């Protein structure tokens, strides 16, 4: 879905319609055994969690991330339990404190868990102190877990609450991650906070004068590019990577502190730093599952989340034989890349195996078919290569970089509003009397580009209108292969 939930003041936000990358992030934090993992599991239900391997001090720790579902609320939730695996008494959060601080920076809110049964422990005080120091801009909500165990009357809840209040983060919400008791109270506290956060994203822009923003694009697009090659086993990903790396200065190898599986490949291309995301994952799989033809969607999903640009590799010979250019799995991956807000480049490999007639047919048919199968994005670049012969590898990297630059694009409000004037007159409105009034148009963020249309009056932009604006924006500013989002905000 390209069109995000419509933000209108006075109307509740439909969180289920907000794209994942715009959702607020909530960290679960607290000393070991307070029930962070239990709460995490309850919040994400049986949904899939992403595990980040965070290398530190030669030990890999896992931070789990998932999309929490609490009533109609949705947010990203991070479970920091893995971070304290080695926290020894005395040094709360152990040697991972710095890492936790980094993780905290990715978050908008933190749920600080304490244990109702144990009462306040010295370690809770340490966590509190630490949070106060490291999370000044982050709203902290205290949660008193295992509250179902306080069954000896109301009095014990009250005394536990007032004890916890001394930490200075307000009254804790008593709940039980295990039984689900009190989850509705958590909802009541979180809803207004998360909603306020969503409105802020849009508000920030309203008074921002971003006249000079085009000049910073070059700087931003110089930041390291995270690239993921995805595709079924045997389509030629390893061969292609080797072909690309041969020419350019290469830096391959396990870094100190990374586990053996986490080989990071980093290289320069035309003065840019490129990080290959999770190359080891498929390198390893290719070795162990030779002949397997399915593409692990779960595995690829992880890669997608970390990549700026996703390069989907197809096997040209199979494309020429099959009725469709892409298998079901490949379409799912491509769509997901776009939904997750990544840039997409499609690579058709093994073109050396095709005789001339077939070659031409494939080159003609594939871009059209891809457009039909992934209508959400226009102009997805398709590159035809032979990794084995080293043909087209430069083209691959150039397309990747072009896509990345588009992904970093920033357009000034002035330019966008000149564009808006023209484009609004091009659109045939359903009923001209009830034409929505777009007062102005502005870019809220880049990477990927996200825009807000400020609409006044009674009429809102319909999905058709938003689709029209999105398509025009992409065409007029040449944003092929990247997801572009337009949000709508009512102004009075
Ligand atoms: P973490 O180290 O903070 O991630 O804590 P865990 O989620 O691993 O929980 C530690 C222990 O507390 C486990 O034995 C859980 O079963 C237990 N636990 C978690 N939540 C509750 C709860 O709400 N009530 C009770 N009685 N036990 C809980
Ligand atoms: P991966 O599983 O996607 O990493 O695929 P590999 O790079 O291991 O390649 C699988 C097989 O396809 C190997 O036997 C390669 O030699 C072969 N291959 C890769 N690229 C090409 C190509 O451009 N042309 C031809 N003819 N074979 C290729």
UniProtKB/TrEMBL annotation:
Alphabetical GO biological process terms: ribosome biogenesis
Domain G: start-end pairs: 26-146, 227-350
GO molecular function, one term: GTP binding
UniProt keyword annotations, A-Z: GTP-binding, Nucleotide-binding, Repeat, Ribosome biogenesis
Ranges where the GTPase Der C-terminal KH-domain-like domain occurs: 410-489
The UniProt record lists the keyword Cytoplasm: no
Taxonomy, superkingdom: Eukaryota
Family: Belongs to the TRAFAC class TrmE-Era-EngA-EngB-Septin-like GTPase superfamily. EngA (Der) GTPase family.
Protein name according to UniProt: GTPase Der
Species name: Deinandra increscens subsp. villosa
Residue range from the parent sequence: 110 to 601 of 640
């Amino acid at each position: 879905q390209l069109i995000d939930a419509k933000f209108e003041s006075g109307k509740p936000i439909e969180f289920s319609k907000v794209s994942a990358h715009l959702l607020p992030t909530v960290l679960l934090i607290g000393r070991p055994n307070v029930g962070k993992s239990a709460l995490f599991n309850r919040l994400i239900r049986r949904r899939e969690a992403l595990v980040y391997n965070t290398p530190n001090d030669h030990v890999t720790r896992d931070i789990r991330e998932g999309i929490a579902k609490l009533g109609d609320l949705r947010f990203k939730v991070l479970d920091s339990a893995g971070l304290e695996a080695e926290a020894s008494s005395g040094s709360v959060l152990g040697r991972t404190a710095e890492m936790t601080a980094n993780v905290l920076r990715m978050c908008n809110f933190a749920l600080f868990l304490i244990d109702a049964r144990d009462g306040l422990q010295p370690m809770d005080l340490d966590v509190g102190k630490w949070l106060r120091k490291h999370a000044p801009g982050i709203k902290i909500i205290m949660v008193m877990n295992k509250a179902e165990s306080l069954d000896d009357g109301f009095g014990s809840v009250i005394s536990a609450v007032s004890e916890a209040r001394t930490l200075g983060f307000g009254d804790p919400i008593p709940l039980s991650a295990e039984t689900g008791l009190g989850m509705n109270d958590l909802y009541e506290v979180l809803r207004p906070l998360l909603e306020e956060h969503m409105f802020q994203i849009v508000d920030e822009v309203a008074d921002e004068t971003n006249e000079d923003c085009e000049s910073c694009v070059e700087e931003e697009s110089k930041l390291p590019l995270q690239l993921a090659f995805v595709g079924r086993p045997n389509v030629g990903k390893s061969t292609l990577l080797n072909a690309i790396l041969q020419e350019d200065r290469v830096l391959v190898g396990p870094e100190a502190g990374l586990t053996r599986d986490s080989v990071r490949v980093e290289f320069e291309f035309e003065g840019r730093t490129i990080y290959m995301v999770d190359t080891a994952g498929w390198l390893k799989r290719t070795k162990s599952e030779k002949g397997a033809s399915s593409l692990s969607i779960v595995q690829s999903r992880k890669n997608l989340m970390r990549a700026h640009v996703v390069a989907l590799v197809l096997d040209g010979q199979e494309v020429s034989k099959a009725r469709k250019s892409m298998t079901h799995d490949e379409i799912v991956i491509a769509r997901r890349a776009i939904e997750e807000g990544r840039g997409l480049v499609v690579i058709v490999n093994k073109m050396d195996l095709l005789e001339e007639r077939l070659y031409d047919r494939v080159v003609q048919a594939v871009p059209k078919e891809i457009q039909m199968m992934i209508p959400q994005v226009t102009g997805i670049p398709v590159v035809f290569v032979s990794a084995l012969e080293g043909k087209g590898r430069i083209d691959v990297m150039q397309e990747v970089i072009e896509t990345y630059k588009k992904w970093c694009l920033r357009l000034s409000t002035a330019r966008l509003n000149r564009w808006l004037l023209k484009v609004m007159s091009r659109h045939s409105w359903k009923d001209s009397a009830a034409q929505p009034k777009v007062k102005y148009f502005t870019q809220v963020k880049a990477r990927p580009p996200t825009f807000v249309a400020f609409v006044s009056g009674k009429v809102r932009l319909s999905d058709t209108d938003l689709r029209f604006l999105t398509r025009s924006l992409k065409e007029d500013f040449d944003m092929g292969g990247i997801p572009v989002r337009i949000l709508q905000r009512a102004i009075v």
